[in-house]
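Blackboard transcription, Thursday session:
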Amino acid sequence: MLMKRVFSGIQPTGKIHLGNYLGAVKNWVDSQGEFENIFCIVNSHAITTTQNPQELREKTYELARVLIACGIDPKKSCLFIQSEIDEHAALAWILDCNISMGEMSRMTQFKDKSQKNPKNINVGLFNYPALMAADILLYNADLVPVGEDQKQHLELTRNVAQKFNRDFGECFKVPEALIPKVGARVMGLDDPTSKMSKSANGANHAIFLMDTPDEILKKFKKATTDSEACIRFDENRAGVYNLLCIYETLSKKTRESIEGEFVGRGYGDLKKAVAEIVIETLRPMQEKYQLLKNEQGYIEKILEEGRERAREIAQKTYNQAKTFIGLV
Ligand code: AMP
Ligand code: TRP
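(Written on the board underneath:)
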């Protein structure tokens, strides 16, 4: 039986955090045996916000190291850098001409990002979802594992694929989003009403995958909770709910047994338990990351092999799309 194909991407901006891990990367790693996987470091998406060129280059390779340290196995998964395959930008143009201004204008991530950074609202930022759709459609992906925040972009991807297929012939596979039941929206520890993000400023906002055990414990200890002092899964109590969801995802325990575990105990105990499970989860990844720091050649080889494999698939789909649409 043919395996379903998975495609997903992550930007090499900022430092990768627990939200990225629980919402996306953990699921990429866990399902490697089940699917055929293609993972992309989306550096062309990164330049929709201001980047220092040298830093961007370094972060691109650093992210590859982190992903491999997290368990992406190059024998099972193809890992490559987006800008190495010209067809991404080229297909995005074709898709641009098939997406209405109305639909693109509804994208909430553009509104959020432009509000946060009013000094650099560029056309690329507006157009970001078309490039993302191109990423996915080039590889005929069946499934796209992402966090909750990407749901709207996936809808747009499906819509443009369906429209193109209707107007010009069956060219693209229409993909489905794969959003985890828990962990799809990890919130900031300092402000549990906003999602954990790479760009937020607060020192206690995010747990980064390479934080030391001390840093992790300190951040969890300072996490915002409430004054109810009762440990239950209640979405209306955002801070405690966020901590419990992190614990649930990593411990794989049921909600009932977690609530049972904390009966009569305080937030201090909960914070310590969450910090410990996060520290233990990250420890092996951090060790592997340190080892990989001296293996630049190995990382480059993986990315090179990934590029060759990705190129083969991408060129085929792109040429097909060109033919369908009459570009010679
Ligand atoms: P990005 O860092 O924006 O490239 O995101 C990479 C992946 O992480 C995407 O699949 C996002 O949906 C996911 N992600 C980002 N932030 C969070 C969060 N706070 N909670 C869950 N998933 C997230
Ligand atoms: N937009 C995604 C994010 O910010 C990253 C991304 C780009 C992506 N291309 C993709 C995710 C293709 C899945 C598939 O998180």
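Lecturer's comment: The CA atoms of residues 206 and 315 lie 38 Å apart.
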